[in-house]
Design a protein that fits this description.
With 197 residues, this protein is an all-alpha fold. It has one domain. It has helices at residues 2-9, 11-20, 23-34, 40-64, 69-75, 78-89, 91-97, 107-114, 119-155, 158-180. Helix 2 packs antiparallel against helix 3 and helix 3 (23-34) packs antiparallel against helix 4.
């Protein structure tokens, strides 16, 4: 489904996929870049911008629309409490790294906004994290495709090529998810805010 949308709508779909689907869309974008659907550098830039824009949007919702239906739903998730606890203990590493933690992609920037982290602190860290995360996963998808497609081509047939690509991306995502899964954290505390934007 994601690969089909990326193939049909190209970098436009990758921009939104990087913000909504996260690494699955970005890895698939790298695989399609390897197949010549769009340039690798273009895929990396668009994925970075999509990731940054989405997380900045979620942050602003948490910061300035705390009583909205969306933020209220986020606050009820168990991972929201975990995000607040991690943010309280290690704010800068958490902001730089939440994209790499399974299940924390959308809830974390909302929690950061709710916690009152100032815009001037979150925005540059968010940009740095997006610049690291998006090219890394695009590159991973690109090289997974590069390694897998010649093998399945030797086995013969376009169906095998497509199937091989889907399997490679699926295994990569599964391994990433397993690798990033962490222990649950309890008793979150809200970090203090200086109240400035």
């Amino acid at each position: 489904m994601i690969a089909h949308l990326l193939a049909k709508y190209g970098l436009f779909a990758l921009f939104f996929g990087a913000g909504l689907e996260g690494e699955l869309a970005v890895v698939a974008g790298g695989v399609l870049a390897e197949r010549g659907m769009f340039p690798l550098a273009g895929a990396m830039i668009v994925a970075t911008l999509g990731s940054f824009t989405a997380d900045q949007t979620w942050y602003f919702l948490g910061r300035y629309a705390r009583n909205s239906r969306f933020v209220t739903r986020m606050k009820k998730k168990s991972l929201f409490a975990k995000a607040l606890d991690l943010l309280h203990r290690r704010p800068v590493p958490f902001i730089l790294g939440f994209r790499f933690v399974y299940g924390m992609r959308t809830v974390s920037p909302v929690a950061i906004g709710v916690a009152g982290i100032p815009v001037r602190r979150f925005l540059p860290l968010n940009m740095i994290a997006a610049i690291i995360w998006a090219p890394l996963f695009t590159w991973l998808g690109y090289h997974l495709g590069k390694a897998a497609f010649p093998l399945v081509r030797r086995m013969g047939g376009d169906v095998l090529i497509a199937l091989g690509g889907i399997i490679v991306v699926g295994i990569a995502v599964w391994l990433i998810v397993r690798w990033r899964r962490g222990p649950a954290v309890s008793e979150p505390q809200l970090p203090e805010s200086d109240g400035s934007a």
